[in-house]
Amino acid sequence: MSTDPMKLPDPPMPYYTLTIYNLDLFEKSKFKDYDSLLESRLASCQARANHLASILENGNAISANGTLVRPQGEHESKGAREKVPVTTSTHFIGQYVASFTIGTEQVKSYLVIDTGSDLVWWQCGPCYKNGCYKQKNNPLYVSTNSKTYRKLDCLVESRNCEITNKVYECSPYGNTCIYDYKYVGGPRTRGWIAHDVVTFVLDQKQVSIVFGCGKDQMHGEPFSAQFSGIAGMGRRVMGGGNSLPSQFEADIISMCLPGALSTKGSTLSFHKTPFKKTTSATLLQDFRFPSFYFVNLYEVFINDREVPMFQSLSRNFGNYTTRGSSIVDTGTFITRFPQDFYTVFSYTFRLQVRGIPMIDVPPGSVHDTCYKVNTTGPDPHFPVVKLYFGSQNPNNLLLLTQQRVMQYINGVFCLAFLPWDQTVALIGSNQLQGIGLTFDTAANTLSFDVDACN
Fold first, then answer.
1. For residues 97 and 135, is the Cβ–Cβ distance under 8 A?
2. Cβ partners under 8 Å of residue 142, min gap 6
3. Which CATH number fits domain 7-270: 1.25.40.80, 2.40.70.10, 2.60.40.2100, 3.20.20.140?
4. What are the b/e assignments for 44-76, b being 16+ CB within 10 Å?
5. 340 included as an active-site residue
6. C-alpha span between 157 and 163 (Å, rounded)
7. Ramachandran angles phi, psi of 18, nearest 5°
8. pLDDT tens for residues 273-332?
9. Which residues are annotated as active site (predicted)?
10. Of the candidates 358, 304, 301, the residue with the CA atom closest to the CA atom of residue 324
């Protein structure tokens, strides 16, 4: 059974706090069982990896005039060569949705949160002819019904129309800032940039934000009808930027990612955190990719066996080079390592497994390390994975156990890590679910409060 999103509790939230849900909660009824749902998520995760690989390889380069050039997705990168199964729906942009209250009519809208982008957009009626898909869970926002809506004048507010070159353009007709964003894989949104308010219903406080008024989302692969748009949660840019952290001028973002089977919402907060900041990684900034959250993965252990680092995980950040460069991305489901590192990682893991038979993986499976366990016996105990950030210090240790290490699918347990062709690691939501996350771009830390919100 699927949960009706219209009946989900939307508790009043304090200023700068939103409710977030796992998108799987809305879509369970589309699948015959949890295994088929998980297979779809794995396929979507591959598409997400393709999307990020294209960005890493083709752009977010800084042009000569200092503006940011974001790739439009027309070119396939080497990291995007893996095909996405045709059965997947196009949800690779993210796996979590936040509940927003928009405009003077306070339209409740679910927007996917995406820590890898800086554009906030939602479907915006009146749409172009046949331009908007039918939303399943909430009514269409109609700009003419909101008294606080207004188009952005790109001559007066040029900063908000120049942040991402090739995405935004100032039209000579009416000084309208138009945008056209095509995601790798085919989905596309077109419209113009505008202003409206978001209301935090506990105290009825409002914040005006800049957003993409999406007039046409039908000239490309379809978006999911389960959400109205996408909220870019990319790293805050001082003095500008259109991501939510930039617009809210928030150095601190805290969130807890609900698990796939969770029927409860969690919270996404700006400016403050309820979580402990005992275990932290250093946030690194790559100005070629200003939206991404890079961290300094230093060492990886399986039980007490160290996995040696490779040159593939070293990255130049301008005036210094660090090993173990990793991107934390909530839109990615499975954590990925560069191919050479993953080969040794998975081999070391297999050596550490005791008393559980490894099985041959069926052809076409994304996994390569799976085990058959007697379901009537005691719970299996697989090796733990230790991620150290910056140094081998207990205060920098993220300890991953059981469901954050293994996935149970089609009756077997499989290692919940995958390889890819990039020179950075990609830390995904399967490893982060149930952990209180605090992104602090003023202190340049990402903190982990394990099991703070299970």
1. no
2. 124, 125, 126
3. 2.40.70.10
4. bbbbbbbbbbbbbbbbbeeeeeeebebbbbeee
5. no
6. 11
7. -125, 155
8. 999 998 999 999 888 888 899 999 999 999 999 998 877 777 766 666 677 789 999 888
9. 114, 329
10. 301
Q: Do residues 434 and 454 make contact, with C-beta atoms less than 8 angstroms apart?
A: yes
177 strand-pairing partners: 170
> What pTM, to 2 d.p., does this model score?
0.87
Q: Is 3.30.559.30 the CATH classification of the domain at 279-449?
A: no
Residue pLDDT, tens place only, 332-349: 889 999 999 999 999 999
Q: Where are the domains of the chain?
A: 7-270, 279-449
> Do residues 293 and 237 make contact, with C-beta atoms less than 8 angstroms apart?
no
Ramachandran angles phi, psi of 339, nearest 5°: -55, -45
Task: Tell me, yes or no, if 440 is annotated catalytic.
Answer: no
Equal fold, 7-270 vs 279-449: yes
Q: Residue 173 contacts by C-beta under 8 Å, 6 or more apart in sequence?
A: none
Q: Residues 159, 160, 163, CA angle at the centre, nearest 5°?
A: 80
Q: Give the CA radius of gyration of the chain.
A: 21
Alpha helical stretches, state H, 29-126? 34-58
Catalytic residue among 216, 329, 440, 449: 329
**Unique residue bearing structure tokens 């997705």:** 73
Question: Which residue is catalytic, options 114, 196, 216, 286?
Answer: 114
| Closest CA relative to residue 175, chosen from 161, 163, 164 | 161
* Cis ω before 5 (30° cut-off from 0): no
